[in-house]
From TrEMBL, chain A:
Annotated protein name in UniProt: ABC transmembrane type-1 domain-containing protein
InterPro entries from the UniProt entry: AA_ABC_transptr_permease_3TM, ABC_transp_permease_HisMQ, MetI-like, MetI-like_sf
SUPFAM superfamilies in alphabetical order: MetI-like (SSF161098)
Organism the protein comes from: marine metagenome
Regions crossing the membrane: 15-40, 69-91, 97-115, 198-219
Length: 230, 223
């Protein structure tokens, strides 16, 4: 147990920082995912077949391919792709991207595919009359989306979004293969140098459980808040 | 685009797919039994048994699969006593460690799927069986299980696809499954996009097959 103490002899402080890193990656991946969902949800709901196809391609491919493979693609291909783009602009030096950015992007694209499906489902299950009513009342596009559709969509999407958050949080453990020091990577380092893998991996499991437990409590309160009046 | 690499890596990746499928089928097979067992325990009226089953599914669904594999593969070998038991024959193999971790993980999810399926069975069905004088054993096997299978098929299909993606984590414990071989080829050739397209297509093809198989079964079980 002394191995988990804070300070120079224990790994407590390192693991604490690693936990913060996991939370940071999860949040930034979730936000990047929302950005992707913002682009691809309208595509999936569009009237045009080609746009539908692009939207469906994104969600099908990402949800059908293992997360680890996507992470390897970004880890090995990320800097190459950036360097290729930079070479068009006449910059030929080696560019190394930060593991945090690579990881957030890889997980973000994955979580974006799930978020897209959630938002699509939520918008589709809003009563048609709501769209028609807001049209009849002559609301402009801004009020139509932000005051009529969005509040209803959020209420329907929140329970599923909290599932996406859980998936995203657990997926961040896979970024440890790229060397970003989050919970898994720190446990791996600690287990390697103390030869006590059972303790550290079990402790990592406890940390993940704690994170999911706390975030579930928070999200349940949010859900209650958004479903007032129903 | 290096099409030559795509062509030469295809047979290598395809032979690695066999290991992926082996891992998947073995873990689903054991996972189904674990899931059924814990679903029945969840429905038990004894609060201790009930809580135990809930705790099991909570822990395995709340932690990443990677942690579970690492605890089983790296962690358990550390216990001196454990190494002297006959179980060590199984647990020293990364292949079996991966299967055990996957089976326990998918078992937790399956137990939740089956539990909710059992709970949505209308009590009228069971009462009808009882009033016809059918024994509770036959009610379970002939009424509850078929209805539960039908109810849980869509969710279980998703779980199979999630598990198929989960088997990629076997590559972290030195197994050369589809992802493991893909990573090996990427790190030797530094051509991630080409390899990703080939390996990704194989995974997508498997997803496609599973998806349609479940659809077919759903049709068959619907009444």
């Amino acid at each position: 147990m002394e191995l988990l103490y804070f300070g120079d002899n224990g790994w407590g402080d390192e693991l604490f920082i690693a936990t913060l890193m996991t939370v940071a990656v999860s949040i930034s991946a979730m936000l990047i995912g929302f950005l992707f969902a913002l682009i691809f949800t309208p595509l999936k709901l569009s009237k045009y077949k080609i746009l539908n196809l692009i939207g469906n391609f994104y969600t099908t491919v990402i949800r059908g391919v293992p997360e680890l493979l996507v992470i390897y693609l970004f880890f090995f291909g990320g800097s190459g792709a950036i360097m290729y783009v930079a070479s068009i602009f006449g910059y030929f030096e080696y560019i190394e991207i930060n593991a945090f950015i690579t990881g957030s992007f890889a997980i973000g694209i994955i979580s974006g595919a799930y978020s897209t499906e959630v938002f699509r489902g939520a918008i589709q299950s809003i009563d048609k009359g709501q769209f028609e009513a807001s049209k009849v009342l002559g609301f402009n596009k801004y009020i139509h989306f932000f005051k009529v559709i969005m509040p209803q969509m959020l209420r329907l999407a929140l329970p599923n979004l909290s599932n996406v958050w859980q998936i995203t949080l657990k997926d961040t453990s896979l970024i440890s293969v790229t060397g970003l020091v989050e919970i898994m990577r720190q446990s791996y380092i600690a287990a390697g140098s103390t030869r006590d893998p059972l303790l550290f991996y079990s402790f990592a499991a406890v940390l993940y459980l704690l994170l999911t437990f706390i975030s579930m409590k928070f999200l349940n309160r949010l859900e209650k808040n958004y479903s007032r009046g129903f | 685009m290096d099409f030559d690499l795509m062509i030469t890596s295809f047979p290598k990746l395809l032979s690695a797919t066999v290991i992926t499928l082996k891992l998947l089928s073995a873990s689903l097979f054991f996972g189904l039994f674990i899931g059924l067992l814990f679903a029945i325990l969840r429905l038990n009226k004894n609060p201790i048994i009930n809580k135990f089953a809930y705790g099991y599914s909570y822990v395995f669904r709340g932690t990443p699969l990677l942690v579970q594999i690492f605890i089983i593969y790296f962690g358990l070998g550390q216990i001196e006593y454990f190494r002297s038991t006959f179980l060590w024959v199984v647990f020293k193999e990364p292949y079996w460690c991966a299967i055990i971790a996957f089976a326990l993980n998918t078992g937790a999810y399956t137990s939740e799927i089956l539990r909710s399926a059992f709970q949505t069975i209308k009590p009228g069905f069971i009462e009808a069986g009882k009033s016809l004088g059918i024994s509770s054993k036959i009610i379970f096997y002939k009424i509850q299980i078929p209805i539960a299978i039908k109810q849980s098929l869509p969710a279980y299909g998703n779980e199979i696809i999630l598990m198929m993606k989960g088997t990629s984590l076997a590559s972290t414990v030195t197994l050369l499954d589809l992802t493991g071989v893909a990573k090996y080829i990427i790190s030797t050739t530094f051509k991630p996009i080409e390899v990703f397209i080939v390996a990704g297509s194989i995974y997508l093809f498997m997803t496609f097959i599973i998806h349609n198989l479940i659809k077919y079964l759903e049709k068959k079980f619907s009444y």
